Amino acid sequence: MVLWLAILTFGAAWIGCSPSHESPPTASATASSTPAGRAEADFTACNIALAPLGDTDPIDQQIHRLQQQARVSTNSIAALDQLGWLLVARARDSFDPGYYKLAEQCALCMDARQPHAPEALLLRGHALHSVHRFKEAETLARELVTLRGSSPDYALLGDALMEQGNLDEATRAYQSMMDKKPGLEAYTRTAHMRWLRGDLSGAIAVMQMAVDASSPRQPEIAAWVHVGLALYQLQAHNIQDASHLLETALVLRPNYAPALAARGRLLLAEGNAEDAAESLRQAANLHPLIETQWLLVEALRATDQSEQAQGVERQVIERGPLEDPRTLALYLATTRQNVAAAVRLAEKELDTRQDVFTWDAIAWTHRAAGQLEQAYTDSQRAVAQGTQDARLFLHAGAIAAESGRPAESKRWLEQAAATQQMLFPSERRELERQLDGLRSHVALRTPEHPGLATDASEGRSR
Amino acid sequence: MTHRVASGWLLLPLLLSLAIPVQAHDPGLSAADVSIEPNQMRAHLLFARADILSLARASDLDQIAAQALLVRVDGREVAPVRVSVQRDDPADFQFLLSYRLPQAGQLDIDSLLLPRLARGHRQYMALRDQHGNVIAERVLDAHTSHLHADLIASSQTAKRPWSQFLRLGTTPVLGCLLIALAAGFWFVRRFFS
Questions:
Q1: Does the distance separating the beta carbons of A131 and B27 come in below 8 Å?
Q2: I need a surface site. Which of A147, A383, B23, B186 has the fewest CB within 10 A?
Q3: How many CB atoms sit inside 10 A of residue A447's CB?
């Protein structure tokens, strides 16, 4: 009898304590409004966030440990939050945007377990912003600011607004961020905003503060701010400083793709195409950004490696529509290939972001398509914020010249020439061509050739 | 120490969101649900419409669907016996593939579209037994696009009718019954002693 009792009691206890084995978490995810929404929601976000990744990097062991914690911990929200930000760190570290998608799934899983948790909103907002879903990120950021209003919430709101070209409101969000928590993250945003507004020296001063505030204990972030400052210094003609900053970035984070790409750009500006090609090749292997590959194509052509250049160009054209349609549109318009596709890509980008660079891409593709008046209207929007960018100036100058506004063209082209070290080699050639055109136009306007009657039309346009 | 770790995590959102301007793109996310049934296997793949249309025209979808998976059973390739594409949803395409599955030991599935999709695309793949239990799952990408399962081992795990039965929501009822029985025995024994 006692034995029976023992068996029955043990059996009851075993059944009561039996773990649920591999059954997937049952929290259901909120369906995303994106095309991938159903694919992401049909399987719960928790399943995806906690599924093995199969990667082998040391950071992946940390990811695996946090996944385990999130499965069993009573405070699974905290474990998921840590997991999500670790995936974001992995995305930055590996330049693999797929990790942002997984971070988004962590946030959806958190939201399913604890609806409207600010941690989930922030993580998801950041993941969405990072994969160019700016409008959705803005919606979440506004909810966060109302709900909590902490420094990262204002940062997210400012970032989403800035990408969509709403600089005034973005500035206010960044100011709130700075008021709440001044520091490296606020300095980088302030610097970029100053640069967008045309205040290069102000941007350099604030980015220097970010560099000073950075720590080698976070090498990727420290390297990133060094690269940012280096590009500002390059624009300000402080080549030595820029070069030194890039070398420091590469010490902080060896083989850091953004630093290698910026070094390639600097070397090309100095006319050292050979070394530039090598640096850009490394950068493109590590992080095949369309812009880096475009620069690599130019460096390879400058060093008579046209076969390799063709191979890279093929990748740009194949991958560009998915990965960076705006830059591909610029590339196609600059090289006068498939102009109709360039216009389509640039106009489609407007659905995603409406900043000055998107307006510039639209203007440049319309110009390539021969729609000069439309191009002129678009280019006016591109230069409206006062951003001091050589490419914007070159495009505005070329469009003004070709649409019969030589005086305005001269103004823009002179500004482009003043910072032509920031232009790609093909763009520098275009600048030369435009300036030559302008010179011959001025030569034509001698008393014997009383002009091309452009002043009146310019007066109207202004 | 715990406090320091916690503060570190609080700072991460700020530090990690430095990417201005943003240089990533949306690589997309898809899902593959593979069910093992007696003598057959069904795969249900779900892709965002835009992701698939970046690979092919809508008219070529059947061909794309047929090429979506490479299935090997004990090292031998198995072709789908039925392929269909559902286009009802404006946002998605669903690929439904059926395979004849002989008595299998080792199952290997490669997701072949991943290297052709945008860089960074991820696919959640789950392999289920005939009861719906997940026997293998993984997040796949272009470099790791392979899922392996030992079907013999998983079927042995699955052939535990009691444990299966108990997992189907009857656990608390049985537990209570057993406790009641134990209490009954204890009461009878005590009363009659």
A1: yes
A2: A147
A3: 6
Q: In whole angstroms, what is the distance from residue B110 CA to residue B125 CA? A: 10
* Interface with B, mutate which of A322, A326, A344, A352 (most B CBs under 10 A): A322
Q: Which residues have C-beta within 8 Å of that of residue A397, sequence separation ≥ 6? A: A409, A410, A411, A412, A413, A415, A416, A431, A434
Distance of CA A13 to the CA centre of its chain: 56
Residue A9 pLDDT greater than 90, yes or no: no
Model confidence pLDDT, tens digit, residues A365-384: 999 999 999 999 999 999 99
Chain A: nearest CA to B166, how far in angstroms? 8
Whether residue A54 and residue B181 make contact (CB cut-off 8 A), yes or no, is no
How far is Cα A408 from Cα A399, in angstroms, rounded to an integer? 10
The Cα of A230 is separated from the nearest Cα of chain B by a number of Å equal to 15
SS3 A179: helix
In chain A, what are the domains? 363-449+457-462 (1.25.40)
Joined together, the tokens standing for residue B125 give 């793949």
Report the half-sphere exposure of B27 (CA within 13 A, side-chain side): 27
Do the Cβ atoms of A82 and A66 come closer than 8 Å? yes
* Pairing of the two strands B82-86 and B69-73: unpaired
- pLDDT classification of A39: cutoffs 50, 70, 90: very low
- Do the beta carbons of residue A110 and residue A81 sit within 8 Å? yes
Nearest one of B94, B109, B97 to B51, comparing CA atoms:
B94
Q: Which residue of B has its CA nearest to A81?
A: B9
Taking CB atoms and an 8 Å cutoff, what residues of chain B touch A288?
Answer: 119
Q: Classify each residue of B143-159 as buried b or exposed e, where b means 16 or more C-beta atoms within 10 Å of its C-beta.
A: ebbebebebeebbebbe
Q: Is A5 in CB contact (< 8 Å) with chain B?
A: yes
Contact status, residue A389 vs residue A421, Cβ threshold 8 Å: no
- pLDDT at residue A176, as a whole number: 97
Both structure tokens of B134: 């997940």
Q: How many percent of chain B have pLDDT more than 90?
A: 52
**Residues A302-342 pLDDT 10s:** 999 999 999 999 999 999 998 999 999 999 999 999 999 99
At B2, is the pLDDT very low, low, confident or very high (cuts 50, 70, 90)? very low
Characterize the bridge pairing of strands B29-37 and B122-128: parallel
Searching chain A, which residue's CA lies closest to the CA of residue B48? A36
Q: CB contact, 8 Å: B175 with chain A?
A: yes
Question: Does the beta-carbon distance from B118 to A225 stay under 8 Å?
Answer: no
Pairwise CB contact (< 8 Å): B119 & A321: no
Provide the chain B residues 20-39 that lie in CB contact (below 8 A) with chain A.
20-31, 33
Identify the burial level of A103 via C-beta atoms within 10 angstroms of its C-beta, where 0-12 means exposed, 13-18 middle and 19 or more buried: buried
Residue at A35: amino acid letter: P
State how far the Cα of A139 lies from the Cα of A33, in Å rounded to an integer.
12
**Is the peptide bond between B21 and the residue preceding it cis, with omega within 30 degrees of 0?**
yes
Between chains, do B26 and A98 touch, taking CB under 8 Å as contact?
no
Q: Which of A39, A131, A188 sits opposite B48 (nearest CB)?
A: A39
Q: Is the pLDDT of residue B103 over 90?
A: no
Cβ contacts (< 8 Å) between A88 and chain B: which residues? Answer: 12, 16
